[in-house]
Structures are given as structure tokens and as C-alpha cells.
Specification:
The chain is of the alpha+beta class. The protein has ten helices and 21 strands.
Length: 417
Amino acid sequence: MIMSVIRHVICAMSGGVDSSVTALLLKRQGYHVTGVFMRNWDSVEETGVCNSERDCEDAYRVCQMLDMPFHQVSYVKEYWHEVFSNLLKEYHRGRTPNPDIMCNKHIKFKHFLNYAMNTLGADAIATGHYARTSQEDEEVFKQRHITSPKSLFRDRFEIRNPARLYQGADRLKDQTFFLSQISQSALRQTIFPLAGLTKDFVKKMAAEAGFHHVLKKKESMGICFIGKRNFEDFILEYLEPRPGNLVSLEDGTIMGEHKGWFTFTLGQRARVGGQREAWFVVDKDVTTGEVFLAPTTNHPALFRDTMRTDRFHWITDEPPAELVRSSMMECHFRFQNQMPLTPCTVTLNADGSVWITTARPIRALTPGQFAVLYKGDECLGSGKIVRLGPTEHTLHLGRERLKGAPSDPPLTPEPTS
């Protein structure tokens, strides 16, 4: 194994507590650290506040406190063309995209990584994600002083085994879900200093370092780099209204109207006037514009156990040997970051897509979201959900029809001559 020294690390600074402590840790470990703030969205929130300006100031202040160089870089165009435009197309198709996963894939771990390496001459980048890789040299994180010729990190380009992505120590804050589409080459060039820390400990470190201005901030919410907004109002700024009917799945009754099927996602509560009970979105028809509703949050029409993805992205570039060998594998699944991991069976298709069957029906499986797979602590990768199996409601109706169907008459023997 060839060893090389990684000295210059570019830290992605968001103006939040996690990236601030990431920079602090890197400095303590003896790296030459440069902080870079990414600007990816221009407009202000409905409150009239431009969060990116405040975040940039907060990031700059941390860099000053740590005596670090600070840069700003704009990816507004790239974000629009590679993330946001795709988001609009997906909504128009009736799907519900995940911009956070795509933002990491296209912006942070592609454009930002290239800028860090090629423009700033970095040896690696670091982010404040709660995740770890198979290539972290834990002894490095215990160092306080650097003595030559010891290396800080193994040369990730000379290691033949692929880098693997594992859940962070803080399972409640684990962010491997959002990293499930990044490339193998990007993972090899990335450091996750918060890998073994909990959020509470990170906050304690921030307080001890005097980062009080970032500790006061709330957790970032809403669309990646855009923030928390009234979704219907926001999406209608970019997509023309397409009015249609809200239809009861139970009896076909028209219950109201909507401004566009893309303002709804499966499983969400629908505002329907004059109803005592809550109704929830269970299906959408982009051809007719109808959005189908059913009563109660646990209606059988919301539950399925089968889905198909597009070509699956494996973190290690190749499917697991077990899956290649038998075309089938047992592992765990989630399609939302904080949902419990669910046992599943994965079937590999010839085109690289996979079928996933979960051990129990899952509520509101949604086309456009990402099916993320895990084997133990390891995040294997993800694929976009493009097709769903039948709902429990549909299967129940099918069984009822079979019960009511007339049975075939008994076979009569052929007459003998």
C-alpha cells in the first residue's frame, strides 16, 4: 500500500453547528483547513429573510475564530439545471423527488469536490455529515501533533478495496440516507470527522469553542438549500396550475378541487371541507388530473410491500457478490431518512434495476423517492422508485372477487361406447 500525506482539507461550511465543529476538529488534528461556503439559491423566504446571507456570515465568523482562510462559491446555475429543474419535472410526472439526495450527488460531491481539488488544490474535502467510511484511520483522529513522516490518511487512490459507507455513531442523526447516491471516487476523497460523535457532544464542543452564534440556530429544514416554505405556494410559482378533482376511492364521489396533482404526495393529509374525519392521498392520475383520497391514516390503499427502482446505484460501484451470485439478497430498506429499517428481499434485474419486497407492507411508498438499502451498518446505495406493486386495498378487492366468482362445473367423464 502506498502512503501519502493529506494536509490541505477543504471544509464545506454551511453556517451551522455541524460544519463548524467539523472545521474545529480538522484544525485540532493538524490539517491546513480552508472553509468554503456554497451559495446555491438566490431568492428570499416568504418572511423576507435571505437565509443564505446570514449563513454565510456565520460561516465566515467561525473561520475567523479558527484562523482559517474563507471562500465563497456559487452553484446557483448548476443547482437550477441539475437539481431544481429535475425536481419540477418529477413533480409534473406525478412523482415526489428527494432534492437532498440529488443535491449531494450533483452539487456537493461533484461540483464542490472538483472546485476543492482542481481550483483550491485540496487533498480531500470534509463535511459535517453524521456518517463514516471504511477508510477512516481512527488513530489519526486521536492525534494532536503531526510528526513527519507519518501520514494523516491512507492514500485512497492506492487502496484496491472499495470505500464503503457506514452509519455514524449517532443513529438518530445518521445521514447515510442522504449520501446514498454519491460516487465511489467522491467517497474516497471525503472525510467525515463527526463519524464517531453524537449530536449532543458536537453541541458541547461548539459551546466550549465559543460558537454561540451557530448554537442558537434551528436545524435546517425544507428543500435542500431553499429552506422551509409553504410548499403549495412555492411549487405553483414554477408550475402552471392544473386544477382537478379530489375523488373518494371508496365510492368515486367528488369531494373537492385542487390546483394541481403535483401539490400532493402519497400519504399526506388532504384539506377537504365538511368532513368530520381526516382524508389522505392514496393515488394520483396525471392523465385525468384526479387525486384519490381515502379516510383514516392507515387505510389499506396506503400500504404496499413491493416496488421497482431504476438502475440501482451501488456505493462500491458493483452489486454485492451475494446478489450477483443468486440474483436475490436479504437486507434492510428505508425510503425516508428517519423511518425504521425494514427487512426486505432484493431481486436484481438484467438492466441493473432491482425489485424490493419488504417483510411487511409499508405506508405511502412513493414514486420518485429513493429506496436505500442497508446490510448491517453499511449503506449499500439507492435507486429511485419508479414502479409500485399493488396496495393492500387492491389485493383485498381481488381476493373478494375471487370468492364471489362462480366455481367451475365439475368435470364429467367421457361416455364410453
